[in-house]
Design a protein that fits this description.
The chain contains eleven helices and 39 strands. The chain has 705 residues and is of the alpha+beta class. It has an eight-stranded mixed sheet, sandwiched between helices. Strands 3, 4, 5, 6 and 7 form a five-stranded antiparallel sheet that branches. It is globular. The protein starts with a helix and ends with a helix.
Length: 705
Amino acid sequence: MQNINKKIYSLLPVIIGLIFVAACSKKDIGIPESREIIHFDEYHGQKISDPYRWLEDFTNDEVKEWVRLQNNYSQKFVKNRFQKSIKQDLELIWTSEYVSTPFKVQDKIFYYFNTGKLEQNRLMIRDCESCPERILIDPNNFSNDGTVSLASVSVSPNAEWIAFAKSDGGSDWRTWKIMNISSGEILDDEIEWSKFSGAEWSPDSSGFFYRKYLKPDGEELLDLNSSPKLMFHVIGTNQINDQIIIWNKNDPLLSSSITVSDDGQYKILYTEKGTDERNLISISRYEDEGFISIINEFVASYTFIDSEDNYLWFLTDHMAPNRKVVRLDFNNLNLGFEEIISETASSIRSVDLINQSFVINYLDDTFSNIKYFSKDGKKMGSLELESLGTISGLAGKKEDESIFYSFTNFKQPTQIYKLNLLTGGSELFWEENLTNFDPNNYETRLEFFPSKDGTLIPLHITHKKNLQIDSKTPVLLYGYGGFNISILPRFSKRYLAWMNQGGVFALANLRGGAEYGKSWHEQGMLLNKQNVFDDFAYAAKFLHANKIGSPKSTSIQGRSNGGLLVGAVMLQNPDLFGFAIPQVGVMDMLRFNKFTIGWAWESDYGSPENLDDFKNLYAYSPYHNIQAGVCYPPTLITTSDRDDRVVPSHSYKFAARLQNLQSCDNAIMLRVETRSGHGAGIPRNKLISEIADIYGTALSFTQKN
């Protein structure tokens, strides 16, 4: 031991010299200095270093200055010929009109519209089917820079009122206002400190239910959000007079919401814990004060579909991972749930009761398959589609004879159809026409590849027709893999811009999502999370084995939980990619539950306070698994200064540590958007600039000759 100590001491001058040279070289190329502090946290007897804890105070002046220097540094790489070309292409692409799938309330038709040049989409209305359209709410008037968005709307059952929520600078906090639809008058009512909530109207349109959190004691973009109250607001009153319906004081991690049946006869109370799909259900006649508990244990997911007379229909995954439709007789609750439409090999994405029949959206290998059933579960046919893709917007009421729906896939921009439910026929209502774009000039296909454990994973591959694909072709591989969320075939202007540069876009439907039901989700959550990272890495290996790009030409991208995905996979496979783009990612898996709504993700990630979960989280946490002496791929980390869902300190700490431990000249960059949040409501111009910066930088690093 004494000899070993002598050898170590003799090497100290060399080690110090190497550190000095590394520090000088970083300073010479302009990487901002990220000071380190001595800080340790103890988990289950193990001390864990957190040298960049100071970056968690992201509203601090020192951190703001650090961010400014980081943005300046990243700009040295962002300004390049690819970025300029992509931005010009996006400016052209984004001049097309946008229309959302219309929805009806009474005789009124509502939809969002954009000329292609507006920062935010307008909410439009037709007061009847043959009436001219008019602007109902224009969020472009909310602010001068377009950063205050229209986050959510809810129309009263009598179609006289609309509750609408504003988001300031991308924050998840919502401020609700109420407008008279006919006159356009905005009432004095103002509902503050609402989050993750809609507005569920009472049958008489006198008010609505909503979820409210306590006003934060400290920084509103940082403080933990728990113990929400379910409230009821009466039109024309002050918020301080709102009634508390449910407040789970004894368990601050529980949250409640109410759904009112279309016929106004029932109210259904949901109780949830975080992002866990499993929930509790209680029901009552609308006018009754109390609720009758139906499901009192967190064993499965139950979603109310509709009701008629004494029957209520639900969609559930109880003993049916791909989900089924069940019925409850309110007059005979002791009979329990009766199975009406059984589980099949395809998972159910959504169910609506329209024109007295069920319209069910199944997923067949990620593609929509629409089938009709009677109220007692008999098959009644299906919706014929000309090509494979994703159907959205199938919603309506029992008495509706026609509805709108949208269709899209990776090469087909959105088409909106009007479906006649009496004849089964569809007619085109609107389609997106992009300048200089022809879908016939692109091709898309679905492949399946074996992951590390042999599980077959879907991989969508899209590019220009006749593109000469080889190992030098730029490839953009995208993934998410978590929280029971399906990433489905959908046209995207950002991916079109990538393909217009001669690139291939690939989407891997990783485990952790809902593409194949509950079991697919469970295979990628908690202690199975490593499966998701393996799926993503093996997607890249499959592409490269088939001469679709190579490690040098492949960029990987993911947002939020997908940012975690990219961070973990690039650290585990540093030689597999030419560029990494972790966006608004969850990077510190030991402290994700300490900020805003992060505690809610424990249902998918586990809790660091639990020993087994801690071991698992620590094993893949991006912030904690950066190793000295490893050459990591060039990386552009992106976040926003007002992201109060995945707070920006995740990205800040990851960037600081990765920059300081990077062992080669591959650049580690951080791009922080201002007046922006987790992603929703970003103005047009900011979005175009962000996409151009990201993809331009990726191409500049992967297409070096």
